[in-house]
TrEMBL record, chains A, B:
GO MF terms, alphabetically ordered: L-isoleucine-2-oxoglutarate transaminase activity; L-leucine-2-oxoglutarate transaminase activity; L-valine-2-oxoglutarate transaminase activity
Organism for this UniProt entry: uncultured Anaerotruncus sp
Reactions that this protein is recorded to catalyse: L-valine + 2-oxoglutarate = 3-methyl-2-oxobutanoate + L-glutamate; L-isoleucine + 2-oxoglutarate = (S)-3-methyl-2-oxopentanoate + L-glutamate; L-leucine + 2-oxoglutarate = 4-methyl-2-oxopentanoate + L-glutamate
Name of protein: Branched-chain-amino-acid aminotransferase
Annotated keywords: Amino-acid biosynthesis, Aminotransferase, Branched-chain amino acid biosynthesis, Pyridoxal phosphate, Transferase
Family in the record: Belongs to the class-IV pyridoxal-phosphate-dependent aminotransferase family.
N6-(pyridoxal phosphate)lysine, modified sites: K196
GO biological process, one term: L-valine biosynthetic process
Record pathway: Amino-acid biosynthesis; L-valine biosynthesis; L-valine from pyruvate: step 4/4; Amino-acid biosynthesis; L-leucine biosynthesis; L-leucine from 3-methyl-2-oxobutanoate: step 4/4; Amino-acid biosynthesis; L-isoleucine biosynthesis; L-isoleucine from 2-oxobutanoate: step 4/4
Cross-referenced PROSITE patterns: AA_TRANSFER_CLASS_4
Cofactor: pyridoxal 5'-phosphate
Amino acid sequence: MQEIRVELAKTLKDKPVDESKLGFGQVFTDYMFVMEYTAGQGWHDPVIKPYGPISISPAAMCLHYGQEVFEGMKAYRADDGRVLLFRPEENFKRLNRSNKRMCIPPIDEELALCSLKKLVDLDRDWIPKAKDSSLYIRPFIIATEGKLGVKSSDSYLFIILLSPSGPYYASGLDPVKIYVESSYVRAVRGGTGEAKTGGNYASALIAQEEAHEQDYAQVLWLDGVERKYIEEVGAMNIFFVIDGEVVTPALNGSILPGITRKSTIELLQSWGQKVSERRISIQEIADAYDAGKLTECFGTGTAAVISPVGELKWQDKVMPIGGGQIGAISQKLYDTLTGIQWGRLDGPAGWSVDIDA
Amino acid sequence: MQEIRVELAKTLKDKPVDESKLGFGQVFTDYMFVMEYTAGQGWHDPVIKPYGPISISPAAMCLHYGQEVFEGMKAYRADDGRVLLFRPEENFKRLNRSNKRMCIPPIDEELALCSLKKLVDLDRDWIPKAKDSSLYIRPFIIATEGKLGVKSSDSYLFIILLSPSGPYYASGLDPVKIYVESSYVRAVRGGTGEAKTGGNYASALIAQEEAHEQDYAQVLWLDGVERKYIEEVGAMNIFFVIDGEVVTPALNGSILPGITRKSTIELLQSWGQKVSERRISIQEIADAYDAGKLTECFGTGTAAVISPVGELKWQDKVMPIGGGQIGAISQKLYDTLTGIQWGRLDGPAGWSVDIDA
């Protein structure tokens, strides 16, 4: 494995005094990890260096043709002082799947994890102590070749940023209101929906802004072909509890394969809870609601963990769910996942990774 | 209108000696135009300054969420020494339409054109003299706010780059081979297909690479819903001549509204040539081919102007068109468009814009 060079900062920044005001992804630590890719040479010169602006060509392909991928994960401070990551190998595996779709050369997943541990270790004093706060980790890759012909770049930067963050939703576990999007489409089979790439997020901004204007937190995306089947929320995957069964849309190529989604399914199965991944139409959800069988709805994601949905709106139909309370299954999932993440509970083997181990 | 400040370079770069080796979008001039946007303040401080790397936050939203748009246009050197732009107002109008879809604040189109003229004037010695060579112009806007929450950025950069360039296809007017893409999808109604934004290009790279491996220049995209109807080529719009009628896919929300496309339709109409914008299935093209009625096929785009298509491949069906020669309509369009662009012919009022006028 390549040696990871460390370039120490001359001075360290002041850490946030009031952790309750961290917000999400707004404050960055003292260091970042950077590795370059050059055609012919491959990925080279991994370095941890002081966090700061990057200098790139104004013709860099990421700025014009969106050749970029990212990941999101967290480091958690356990009560006993350990610093834990949650299934980080899954994130680097997914990063490489995104790379493949976006024609970006694969990274060495072992080197990436090793670099991440070293980076978090150096910045460990930045990991917040407040409840539900953690160190958000943002690995990303951007195309840097400064040429305007449309093609895959010959050079890239792989960077990891760290950001001490509070809960993704300021309202925490309060149920959020979600709006079923009927005009815009996030992704379609054959497109990039299952890759974690910039374009998917850029295309979703307009729908998100329109949802906010109507006082909804996010939109629920339907499939791009028939506009009938539920896909995801954009920042989260979505689950429903119908008549005692947990259901979530099956991965179909246009849905992001969430790691919290996967963990949720695995936990439910380990509890003997019936859980199905299948195609779900929005009409089925409306029918279940009308029949009084839709008892819970929640989103899953690294940023929000488990986010109860308290209201779904589809066209003119408003469907309040759970009476403003978090449901029993959602609560148990939240307690279990966060328990494992913060090291209060033992999870399945390999889920919790101690950066010092 | 805001004053455009000019920051002169201390030294100028050497200009390319051999214009036949320029390629496309690989060499940049001495200057670039830069203007910043800050929420609350709007677009401010337009400046022409020496071309060079830009410094941005590694958390800049364009690097993570693809909030970015661009345009492509050219400056042409006429035989009499005039420097001409081709319908530049159309590009800035389209940039603002892309901005709207991507939640980017609109630019002042008049200021943009004025800035562009001033920039081209300062770099006018960079405009190549070789036949079919021109100064490629790349206006683009990137989201620069350094925060990781998914939302529209609060700050942007609007930049214009200039690049002396040869023909987009090295083979020039030689007919290109195009492959009908059956697996990947570029865009879908409700998505961002009609915006000139990075994600559309990033998602297309993988299909383009697979086409190159099969010795095809580009792919022809079908619609994302039924995968039956022809959309565009990605770098070009597409036209067919069937039984004496020119047809091109109607703009449907997922096709880029090309300015060369629009100009082509307007020219054909002015010649009394029957031309239709409508839905065209790939089956219709195959049927016309089988019936011997498909006499020409060509792409239109700023970079390639008119690019004859000499072969279409759809699944196992290979359809050679025009016997390796450019067709009469394609040739007349090419001669007329390039004639107007280089100032050898008079075009409709307003098509040709002298930067000194």
